[in-house]
Specification:
Elements: H1 2-20, H2 34-46, H3 63-77, H4 82-93, H5 108-137, H6 144-158
């Protein structure tokens, strides 16, 4: 009976160890030249994974990113230009795959919005500071009647 328990325990231990050691597959792509490799990796860093949405094609482990990485690498080795590869990806997945969207009329708010907000903040800050300076130069004068009332209140509190 004890031998059976030891055998079952050993099998359970071996099974749990084999499932814990599973590794993710690694892409291996042989580029035709080191220049192509540099270009391919650079392009894959610039393109966003459509599935993960917050990682580029190199950092993502999703199957979609793996396929797109290999597609980019193959296109680079085929001699296609960067613009041609980016055009292919945006036509297939939309402008979302670009970390740096193109300067177009539909993306003006993305490019010019931060500058506009900065200018608006500077104008509001300038107006606020100017009002503070103008308001700070006016002496605080009270009427004679208010001064007498204040004096009586102060005398009452000191007694």
């Amino acid at each position: 009976m004890r031998t059976l328990i030891k055998i079952i325990g050993g099998l359970v231990l071996m099974f749990s160890m084999t499932t814990a050691v599973m590794a993710t597959p690694v892409d291996t792509y042989e580029f035709k030249s080191p220049e192509n490799q540099k270009r391919g990796l650079s392009l894959a860093h610039e393109l966003r994974c459509p599935q993960c949405q917050n990682q580029n094609l190199i950092d993502s482990n999703s199957p979609v990113a793996r396929d797109l990485r290999l597609e980019v690498f193959k296109m680079v080795d085929e001699g296609k230009g960067d613009d041609e590869i980016i055009e292919f990806m945006t036509s297939r997945y939309g402008e979302f795959v670009l970390y740096k969207p193109k300067m177009e009329t539909k993306t003006y708010i993305l490019w010019l919005g931060p500058i506009g907000l900065l200018l608006l903040g500077l104008v509001i800050g300038f107006i606020f500071i100017r009002k503070q300076r103008i308001g700070g130069n006016v002496p605080n004068e009270i009427s004679a009647e208010d001064q007498r009332e204040l004096d009586t209140l102060l005398k009452r509190n000191t007694k």
